[in-house]
Amino acid sequence: MDPSKFTKKRKLTDKAIPNVLLENPAFAQDSKMYQELLETERRLDWTMTRKRIEVQDALSRTPSTTRTLRIFLGHTVSGQVWQTGGEPSAANFETGEGIPAWQVRIEGRLLEPTNSRHRDKTPSRKFSTLVKRMIVDLERDPNLYTEGNTVEWPRLPGPQNPAMDGFTIRRTGDSPTKMRVLLYLEHFPEQYKVLPELGSILGIKEDSRIGVIQALWNYIKLQGLQDKVDRKLIRADDKLRMLFGGDSFHFQRLPDLVNRFLAQPDPIVLWYTVNPAMAPPERPQAWDVEIKMEDTAMKNRMAAMLQTSKETAQTLHKLDEEIALLAQSLHNSHVKKVFLESFAEDPANFIHTWLESQSRDLESIMGSGPTEGMTVRQEELRRSEFFQLPWVEEAVAIQHGVNLAARGVQT
């Protein structure tokens, strides 16, 4: 097995250019542009990291949006006198044929936002998943019609209530019937009715619990009701003092205080009249209502921002490697230039100094040599600066390690 195949390739990551080149007047303009690019890259990386953290924090809170729910009410009739040519047909009480009857259909669907993109569209939710509870009251004589004049549908969790596009109510009869439809919608986040005592101060009638708390906090900051010393202490003004019954309260009590003035929201009330004596309208009646729900399109877009494609990551990595290689090439070229310039100025002295340096390094690494250190000039050994050179500490550490190893072998 060849170990060289498993040797990890060293990656160059240093993109800095030697200071000598940066300070060279011949490359002043290019060096300045390169430094500005590096600084821009650092600022961009910092901004992207900060935005990524903000998006992750926003995803944890699940964004919401306001959509329009269009509700349709229509009806059909069967077995009516005007349908049978003016003569009543034989009634079959087992199958229901021949008995005058009518049925009402309640449907609904979400309208697409005007500025939505095609790729952001998600499968539309069924109408029954948007309704928490529905009550239909029929204004009929209970003595004459015993089928029940109140129909209630509560949505239960689990498979007991499958998702449906609408509801159908069927009743017998041939007289006009007026009905009231009460719809309790499933908002996200859950909406509450703000009682007038608090709503008149904050200027809101219905909102989520977090929205009401935020509105109250904004009112406190706008009116400057925070204590100057203890910022967690709220000094109530005349309006809040009458509302909460105290001169001051702590910030932690805001949710409890707000809960006192929250109630279940009023239902959506729709009126509809069924007249079996006439032909049903060709088109059903429609109402548009607003509903708060999870913004899945925004959530998907925000999640896509956190995902970097494999091709983009590979391209960026390749560009970084190319820049690092070019920076390393400039460094090597600079070292070679200094080497050749020193050689050209004084070849004999340069060769002598270079050979002494190589010999000294070799003896320091090996711990011995044919000259036993005689290649080092005696003048240098007499100077303290010689023993403060960068390589001295490393040479001493190597020599000390060699001596300890030799002692271990001897013992």
TrEMBL record:
What CDD domains does the database record attribute to this sequence? SWIB_like (cd10568)
Protein name (database record): SWI/SNF complex 60 kDa subunit
Q: Which PANTHER family match?
A: SWI/SNF-RELATED MATRIX-ASSOCIATED ACTIN-DEPENDENT REGULATOR OF CHROMATIN SUBFAMILY D (PTHR13844)
- Signal peptide range in chain numbering: none
- What is the organism of origin for this protein? Coprinellus micaceus
Query: What Pfam families does this protein's entry cite?
Result: SWIB
Tell me which PROSITE patterns the record gives: SWIB_MDM2 (PS51925)
Describe the location of the DM2 domain by residue ranges. Answer: 187-264
InterPro entries from the UniProt entry: SWIB_domain, SWIB_MDM2_dom_sf, SWIB_MDM2_domain
